[in-house]
Design brief:
Elements (H helix, E strand, L loop, with lengths): L10 H13 L4 H21 L9 H24 L2 H4 L4
Length: 91
């Protein structure tokens, strides 16, 4: 039972500590790509965590559009430098 509590464990902290051993594995390229994607997801999550969205505030709309564009550009950069086999991995 999780009691709907948020997961407060920072996976990126664990990856920083244990990542070195993963980088010596034969799946090095996949590990690097997936860590980069995880960091991107965390960045988006941290940015929007706790934000109060007022749909009537015109400034919010402009800022949100700029952030979405920035996050999309970063994701597209990840897609461009990541092999197709890695991008299409399924859990």
């Amino acid at each position: 039972m999780g009691f709907s509590k948020p997961n407060n464990l920072g996976y990126h902290n664990l990856m920083d500590v244990q990542g070195e051993s993963l980088l010596q594995d034969e799946a090095r390229e996949e590990v690097i790509a997936l860590i980069a994607l995880q960091r991107h997801a965390e960045k988006v999550s941290v940015f929007y965590r706790g934000k109060v969205i007022d749909p009537h505030d015109p400034n919010h709309s402009v800022i949100a559009d700029m952030n979405v564009q920035t996050f999309q550009n970063e994701l597209e950069q990840w897609r461009l430098i990541t092999r197709n086999e890695i991008r299409n991995l399924r859990a």
